[in-house]
């Protein structure tokens, strides 16, 4: 007679519904994120001609200039980039990303006929950017993605070692999108687009890290002394060594507590001192 299965039983000994529950939970989280992002785009940003960054922003720019459906561009532009980055991702991430992109694209198509919920473009930029960012972050939190620009940039960097960092490539892409939107729609719309982009960029981090603003950063590098001096000079913060005392030519570890909004500047300072350094973030 077989033993009764409990919550403490090994996963391979449980019944099928127990094993499929984590899959359904992740899928539900990604679908919720995709619908939230679609609402932010079609009910707030797109009716006012507001464009953000990444493949999402590029799709919105194409949709606004060609008057074709946004959902079509979202799927057709993200899918080739996902195929390009296939060696940098696992199978489960790819499956959940495709599912999320399908819901994201279909959601924008279904919401397209509805009018904007906000008549004020500034308020629409704020709420739409927040909704879009939370949706993108929620999808990432559950193991998928609704914008594949970052993965494609990482793949491109691995093919060409002397190229820009993934962060630099994304920054160039986002600047191009926002500048193109500014030239096409005017300066005022460009201000709204930048506002929505910044809010979306910051709100992505909320589902991933919560509302905790201070993070612990660990930096592994062969140039720890130079990095420590640069951080003290430009950020007025002191980074402490972890483990043994520093020695020339041997990778060492620095530990640094900073505000989450300081992270882009910190990464730029560290990479300027040592492009091969490794940066890890702990909440």
TrEMBL record:
The keyword Transferase does not apply. It is found in: Cell membrane. The chain crosses the membrane at residues 20-41, 61-84, 91-111, 123-143, 164-187. Pfam families: YitT_membrane. The keyword Transmembrane helix applies. It is a multi-pass membrane protein. Keywords: Cell membrane, Membrane, Transmembrane, Transmembrane helix. Its main location: membrane. This is Membrane protein. It comes from Paenibacillus vini.
């Amino acid at each position: 007679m077989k033993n009764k299965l409990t919550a403490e039983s090994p996963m391979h000994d449980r019944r099928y519904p127990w094993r499929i529950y984590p899959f359904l939970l992740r899928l539900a989280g990604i679908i919720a994120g995709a619908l939230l992002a679609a609402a932010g785009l079609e009910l707030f940003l797109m009716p006012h001609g507001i464009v953000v960054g990444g493949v999402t922003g590029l799709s919105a720019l194409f949709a606004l200039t060609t008057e074709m459906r946004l959902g079509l561009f979202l799927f057709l532009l993200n899918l080739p980039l996902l195929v390009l980055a296939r060696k940098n991702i696992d199978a489960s991430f790819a499956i959940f990303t495709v599912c999320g992109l399908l819901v994201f694209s279909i959601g924008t198509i279904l919401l397209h006929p509805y009018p904007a919920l906000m008549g004020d473009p500034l308020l629409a930029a704020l709420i739409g950017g927040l909704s879009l960012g939370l949706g993108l972050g929620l999808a990432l939190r559950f193991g998928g993605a609704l914008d594949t620009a970052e993965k494609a940039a990482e793949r491109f960097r691995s093919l060409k070692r002397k190229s820009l960092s993934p962060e630099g490539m994304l920054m160039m892409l986002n600047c191009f999108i926002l500048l193109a939107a500014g030239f096409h729609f005017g300066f005022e719309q460009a201000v709204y687009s930048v506002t929505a982009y910044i809010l979306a960029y910051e709100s992505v981090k909320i589902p991933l890290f919560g509302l905790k603003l201070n993070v612990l950063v660990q930096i592994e590098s062969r140039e720890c002394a130079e990095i420590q001096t640069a951080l003290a000079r430009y950020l007025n913060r002191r980074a402490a060594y972890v483990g043994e005392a520093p020695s020339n030519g041997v990778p060492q570890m620095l530990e640094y507590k900073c505000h989450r909004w300081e992270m882009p500047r910190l990464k730029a300072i560290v990479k300027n001192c040592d492009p091969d350094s490794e940066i890890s973030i702990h909440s």
